[in-house]
Amino acid sequence: MHDLSLWALLGALVGLIALSAFFSGSETGMMALNRYRLRHLHDQGHRGARRATKLLERPDRLIGLILLGNNFANILASSIATVIALRVWGEAGIAVAAGVLTVVILIFAEVAPKTVAALKPERFAFPASVILLPLLKVLHPAVFAINWVANGLLRLLGVSQDDANERDRLSPEELRTVVNEAGARISRKHREMLTGILDLEHVTVEDIMIPRSEINAIDLEDSEREIVEHIVHSQHTRVPVYRNDIDAVEGMLHLRKVLPAAQRGELNKEALVAACDEPYFVPIGNPLSTQLFEFQGRGERVALAVDEYGNLEGLVTIEDILEEIVGEFTTDPADHTTDIHPQEDGSYLIDGSATLRELNRNMGWELPIEGPKTLNGVILEYLEAIPEPGTSLLVAGYPVEIVQTTGNAVKTAKIKPDLRRPVAPVSED
């Protein structure tokens, strides 16, 4: 080294700094690659993605190779800088060379290349893989030896290579964040569908079921004329059939089976009961994700929801679950339900039996869904009494006015969403 000219040493020093920058940028670029986009490009046959994927199969070997090359370049650069300093300034220049070299390496071989690689990982990592992959084969013995010792120490600390596979696995909450941050890459409707699927795990049958009081059912104690009228004018295709008490459900009737006979006036109660299918009961606490698969496995579309005591609480259909994913099967947010009545002043008359999830989904509101399921329930919980008509209150910042009460429940309430007041966030202190 002492036989080389000063210019040759300076050239070698610049080359080593460039080499150090290459290894530093390669490390950041490889680690910053989006794993899901990388897999997508790999499946499409992208050569750079395939090389990068092969390198990332064993991140310990990749890091070992990069650090081996980076440290070799930095140490050799330090030695050459020392020789140059001795020639130019003598022994006094060693300290100067150390300081200058530290700044130069920090800026040009660390910060700058790593910043570029972090911002544009694919542009840095894919070309770098052309060099890194064959270099790994050439230096495999040295890399293997270094990693064998390093991995042995890591195993003593309880760290395994299997942990690298866990890093790429996302929890439902993390996946939800990925979907929401996709922005324009995924349309708003598709984002809503994906988050709806993720929400199925946290929503139960009780949250979306038709309440017991609103179930459209046939009572065998009614006259045959009333039953026929019910069948002909029913808006549903499957209805429960009971005798006197809706808790005593005898079966589920598909109206298609008996509608022709009903229209001809040939239907009787015996034939109606014979056409019923066995009722399908499900717990009200079933998550929708579970219930959807149960519907699929059993080939059912309608189920009766019961509580822990076996009492009938409501009715759920597969369409109700699908609406949690794709939204209501309508273009008008207020016309699909008789629970919501828009007024000319921008307010809405809401039936007390309307569920909070229904209101949030259809109207885009943010009513609380933790606790009571219906508007009547949340009003009674807030007031702790049966309110008089004209009583006003705020529910999650929404002005609510009691319009009509019946017995022990709120029948109708008026909500003015345009006058909503912001709700202050709850402090965690």
What are the defining features of this structure?
single chain; alpha+beta; CBS-domain; Uridine Diphospho-n-acetylenolpyruvylglucosamine Reductase, domain 3; 3 domains; four-stranded mixed beta sheet; 54% helix
Q: Would you kindly provide a brief summary of this structure?
A:
This protein has 429 residues and is an alpha+beta fold.
Subunit arrangement of the protein = single chain
Neighbour order of strands in the largest sheet: 8-9-12-11-10
Number of helices in the DSSP assignment = 18
Structural class: alpha+beta
Strand content: 5-15%
Tell me the distance between the termini.
Answer: 65 Å
User: Kindly state the mean pLDDT as a whole number?
Assistant: 83
Cα gyration radius (Å): 35 Å
The total of beta strands comes to 12
Shape verdict = elongated
The helix content is 40-55%
Largest sheet geometry: 5 strands, antiparallel
Low-confidence stretches: 331-336
Number of separate domains: 3
Order of helices and strands: HHHHHHHHHHHEEHEEHHEHEEHEEHHEEE
Task: Describe how the helices and strands are arranged.
Elements: H1 6-32, H2 35-43, H3 47-56, H4 59-89, H5 93-119, H6 121-138, H7 140-156, H8 163-167, H9 172-180, H10 188-199, H11 205-208, E1 210-211, E2 218-219, H12 224-233, E3 238-243, E4 245-254, H13 255-264, H14 269-274, E5 281-283, H15 288-298, E6 302-306, E7 312-317, H16 318-326, E8 340-342, E9 348-351, H17 356-363, H18 375-383, E10 392-395, E11 398-406, E12 409-415
Helix pairs in contact: 1-4, 1-5, 1-6, 2-3, 3-6, 4-5, 4-7, 5-6, 9-10, 12-13
